[in-house]
Write a structure and sequence with these properties.
This protein is of the alpha/beta class. It has 3 domains: 3-98, MurE/MurF, N-terminal domain (Udp-n-acetylmuramoylalanyl-d-glutamate--2,6- Diaminopimelate Ligase, Chain: A, domain 1); 101-341, UDP-N-acetylmuramoyl-L-alanine:D-glutamate ligase (3-Layer(aba) Sandwich), CATH 3.40.1190; 350-516, Mur ligase, C-terminal domain (Protein-Tyrosine Phosphatase, Chain A, Alpha-Beta Complex), CATH 3.90.190. Helices cover 37% and strands 23% of the residues. Strands 8-7-6-9-5-10-11-12-13-14-15 form an 11-stranded mixed beta sheet, with helices on both faces. Strands 16-17-21-18-19-20 form a 6-stranded mixed beta sheet, with helices on both faces. Strands 1-2-3-4 form a 4-stranded parallel beta sheet. Helix 4 runs parallel beside helix 6 (160-172) and helix 5 (118-131) packs across helix 12.
Length: 519
Amino acid sequence: MKIDKIINNDYKLAKDNKIEITGIAYDSRMVKPGNLFVAIVGENFDGHKFIEDAIKKGAASVVYEHEKYDAALITKYPEIAWIEAINSRVVLAKLSSRFYENPSSKLTLIGITGTNGKTTTSYIIKHILESSGNEAGLIGTIGYLIKDKFYDAIHTTPEAPDFQSYLRKMVDEGCKYVISEVSSHALSQKRVDFSSFKIAIFTNLTQDHLDFHKTMEAYYQAKKRLFTELLMEGGFAVINIDDIYGQRLLQELKMARGNSIEYLTVGIKNPEADLRALNIDISFKDISFELSSKRMAGDGLRRKIHSKILGIPNVYNLLSGIGVGLYLGLPLHSIKNAISEFKAVEGRFQRIDAGQDFLAIVDYAHTDDALAGILHTAQELIKIEAKKSACQPTNSQSNNKKIITVFGCGGNRDRTKRPKMAQVATELSDYVIMTTDNPRFEEPMDIIRDMEKGAIKSNYTIIPNRKLAIQMAVAMASKGDIVILAGKGHESYQEISGIRNHFSDKSEIENAIKMRKGL
């Protein structure tokens, strides 16, 4: 594509230039001949320091921020099409969208943001759509899916050129819908700007990523951008109003955007929710509830919903998925059938069955609120299974069953949530094993000491080696207990001193169960 077509008179070129641009790059190491290189300021590196490297690798054009102006460099390379910008991240997003011919305008783009539940909700929606014969793509934490083609994910939400490139591929492959997790980092860094979101979903907001955002208010404002700035006119917002930030978002959106967008609220506790789950029944194997609808698909609608995925947090994810399906005009019976067939997403309250007589769960929970959610679910499961037992009185049966939790906290991330997670774990578990997560460049024991400060009971031990911690949890488990491995979920690595070593909670607990059984 010619550079003047990409620029479209929005930015001033240092010289008249109709050169052909072969691609857009933001990492000098990835530059190919004919690329437009955009120098962005990242969390760890400033791309302006690598402009000359990009030129030597064949960059034909360079975008730089006006405050980073380097007259000597521009003079040295007069053949380069130099573009000055106020905010190079905004330019990166705009030019990426143009280079890939604005692919979001040819799709129904569905964005999901929130602290917890994004991944499962995205897979639920994809499954509902595909079960009704629609082609769909997905961009998220576990990976990027174009129909059934899987691509490894570097970020939950990729940088702007990659995001637009995947959207373009999805258009070319015939996808009508794309579901994308939209992280707060991506929203702050403009990665999805100049994309047209038709549907936006807010799951919840609890403390996370304060190493980046610094305050909860800044974190909330980043999430809010999806609804106030990126959701198109006539778009559809799905908001969990059991969450206090969801209630705030709804009020602020109605003030800011009025009737220019449609709203659907979901919840369990809040009687004002448009879609609500009532009479929830959970077990070691499944969940079911009555769907109550105030205004969609018939006033006063109530239908029984059944799903093979586990836990109360997943009820919220299912409600959002149902809401999107109904908005898109899919029959409720088709949505119900899709949900009944849907299997757990890898590492999201995933039940591991290796023939053991206790329940083993792997979950990505890495915030105190997410951990509390899965532990409350575990407590309810213990009580429900006790009631179903005819062998012993309910209280005795319940008291005999243990919740054993293995968790750690990531290094070089928000330190303030470490004691909070330990507080939740020791309060809601019968026994806790504190271990490593991804220590990155921190000393594992320094992280664990931060965690330990929050313990409110002495019902824990410390085993820094995560593999040994998992083996101990399995060895401790008795029939009917629940063992929860929290924090890493789907991840297949453990990052230590900057090196990613192969490690899978799922594989490790399966191996530990086999060892226990003498296999």
